[in-house]
């Protein structure tokens, strides 16, 4: 209905006036609704811009410090980190928990396991004699200083000479059924016929899969040492080495499934020559972390998809607890194998932390962080105390359940009020969707509130991916998964990667 421009144009009859008022009221409501949508969209975009600025310019840590409290979370980075420090509940507690500054007591002593070489610096013999009486001057306490000496790597050729012996000329030997020629047997090698020794393979594998050095950088390192080894050769050696270790990988997978807990995570990987897929499509590297008699086993598994079937295959035969993030692809395995599926509190915390940073002042997200901080503080305190498994479970339930219930009530109160398109609303919805899985960590002593053990295991792969960017073929991706498994399992158990690979894995 057209709105009159002057009062003398208004209709005189009441029905037409009512219709005009209703039309104006509807237009006003539509205008207010549009304004609210625009304001909400502006807030969402402002939050995204703030988070993007933090990803680009701020520090890469989830730790909230006392300075962050005073700054109002202005410049924190929202990117994932392995840091498990959590915000205290109030500023007073921050001051109490801050480590006391102590005066430096000098340089830390050098480790005892480093080989030592002693160099004696003596004075000339004639200076030791007293010029007055001719007696030898008494020796006092020596002055000792230390320096670290770097011994560059070197390449050497090891020649394997197999001695050969012919037949004996005696009549008995000639008439007997003995081999006419015998040859000395060399120690079996993992790649017979190649120039790569176990120590060289261990160096190459440790460099790429532990120190994230691409084969192109290895190529330059070898050139400085006076030898030309192409990246193609190194790639082929790695693939063949991984193939030779397949039986060991299968044994590690079998042992993982016998344990009580598996932590799982996955990340993307680009494989250039994946049949049936375009070059820039995503493939995936999955990681499982289990244990065998207290020893951690880290296994990487390459897959071209992120479908639920992958998790079903990797968890086949496992009966126990599975801890993951909120990805729904694990639900099928939980149902199929009857697993105790536990969620990850760190992912919930991360979303509220992003909301706190995106809104500058922190808003209501800071309250959620305090609830989560309480749960972590309970866990840390109990882990540091001497409890039997039964006592630990009972104490954890007694202290954590009230906090979890209060947190859930707080989330439900804000569920309807929070705008789901904003970071706080998304954090609330995610926390509520994961709440049932989160509380399950209370059941067993070996469970923790988060899945950080899997995230920490997959982080070296993500770091390496930034350097070498992609795998050329699926065969290379499977080989990378096997070699990452060997390296990360060694690291998880406190072993020196090069020594473990060279002296144990690659010599068998």
SSE layout and pairing:
Blueprint lengths: L13 H44 L8 H6 L19 H7 L27 H4 L35 E2 L5 H5 L6 E2 L14 H12 L5 H10 L6 H14 L1 H13 L2 E9 L13 E10 L2 E9 L4 H7 L6 E3 L7 H7 L2 E3 L2 H14 L6 H19 L5 H27 L7 H16 L13 H17 L5 H19 L4 H7 L5
Parallel strand pairs: 3-6, 6-7
Antiparallel strand pairs: 1-2, 3-4, 4-5
Helix pairs in contact: 1-12, 6-18, 7-8, 8-17, 10-11, 12-13, 12-15, 13-14, 14-15
Could you describe the 3D structure shown?
The protein has 508 residues and is an alpha/beta fold. Among the domains are: 164-245 and 496-507, no CATH class; 256-267 and 308-471, no CATH class. The protein has helices at 14-57, 66-71, 91-97, 125-128, 171-175, 198-209, 215-224, 231-244, 246-258, 308-314, 331-337, 345-358, 365-383, 389-415, 423-438, 452-468, 474-492, 497-503; strands spanning 164-165, 182-183, 261-269, 283-292, 295-303, 321-323, 340-342. The strands form 2 sheets. Strands 5-4-3-6-7 form a 5-stranded mixed sheet, sandwiched between helices. Helix 7 crosses helix 8 (231-244), helix 12 runs antiparallel to helix 13 and helix 14 runs antiparallel to helix 15 (423-438). The longest helix has 44 residues, at 14-57. The termini are far apart. 27% of the residues are buried.
Tell me briefly what this model is.
By secondary structure, this protein is of the alpha/beta class.
């Amino acid at each position: 209905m057209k709105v009159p421009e002057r009062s003398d144009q208004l209709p005189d009859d009441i029905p037409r006036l009512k219709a005009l008022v209703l039309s104006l009221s509807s237009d006003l409501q539509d205008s207010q609704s549009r304004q609210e949508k625009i304001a909400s969209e502006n807030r969402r975009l402002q939050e995204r811009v703030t988070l993007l600025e933090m990803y680009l310019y701020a520090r890469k840590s989830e730790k909230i410090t006392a300075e962050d409290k005073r700054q109002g979370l202005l410049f924190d980075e929202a990117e994932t980190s392995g840091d498990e420090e959590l915000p205290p509940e109030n500023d007073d507690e921050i001051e109490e928990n801050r480590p006391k500054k102590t005066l430096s007591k000098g340089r830390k002593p050098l480790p005892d396991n480093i080989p030592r070489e002693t160099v004696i610096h003596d004075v000339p013999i004639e200076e030791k004699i007293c010029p007055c009486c001719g007696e030898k001057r008494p020796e006092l306490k020596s002055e000792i200083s230390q320096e670290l000496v770097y011994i560059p790597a070197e390449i050497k050729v090891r020649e394997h000479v197999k001695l050969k012996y012919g037949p004996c000329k005696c009549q008995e030997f000639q008439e007997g059924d003995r081999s006419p020629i015998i040859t000395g047997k060399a120690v079996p090698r993992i790649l017979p016929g190649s120039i790569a020794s176990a120590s060289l393979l261990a160096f190459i594998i440790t460099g790429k899969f532990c120190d994230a050095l691409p084969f192109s950088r290895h190529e330059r390192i070898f050139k400085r040492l006076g030898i030309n080894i192409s990246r193609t050769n190194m790639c082929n050696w790695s693939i063949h080495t991984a193939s030779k270790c397949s039986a060991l990988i299968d044994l590690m997978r079998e042992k993982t499934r016998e344990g009580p807990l598996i932590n799982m995570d996955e990340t993307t990987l680009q494989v250039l020559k994946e049949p049936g897929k375009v070059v820039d499509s995503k493939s995936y590297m999955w990681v499982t972390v289990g244990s065998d008699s207290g020893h951690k086993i880290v296994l990487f598994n390459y897959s071209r998809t992120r479908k639920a079937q992958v998790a079903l295959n990797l968890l086949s035969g496992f009966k126990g607890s599975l801890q993951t993030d909120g990805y729904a692809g694990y639900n099928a395995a939980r149902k199929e194998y009857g697993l105790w599926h536990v969620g990850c509190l760190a992912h919930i915390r991360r979303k509220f932390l992003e909301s706190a940073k995106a809104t500058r002042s922190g808003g209501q997200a800071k309250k959620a962080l305090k609830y989560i901080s309480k749960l972590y503080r309970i866990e840390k305190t109990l882990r540091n105390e001497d409890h039997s498994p039964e006592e630990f479970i009972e104490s954890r339930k007694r202290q954590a359940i009230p906090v979890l219930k209060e947190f859930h009530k707080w989330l439900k109160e804000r569920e309807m009020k929070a705008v789901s398109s904003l970071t706080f609303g998304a954090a609330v919805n995610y926390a509520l969707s994961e709440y049932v899985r989160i509380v399950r960590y209370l059941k067993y002593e070996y469970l923790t509130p988060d899945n950080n053990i899997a995230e920490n295991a997959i982080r070296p792969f993500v770091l390496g991916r930034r350097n070498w960017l992609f795998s050329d073929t699926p065969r290379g991706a499977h080989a990378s998964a096997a070699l990452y498994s060997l390296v990360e399992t060694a690291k998880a158990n406190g072993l020196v990667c090069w020594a473990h690979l060279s002296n144990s894995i690659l010599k068998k």
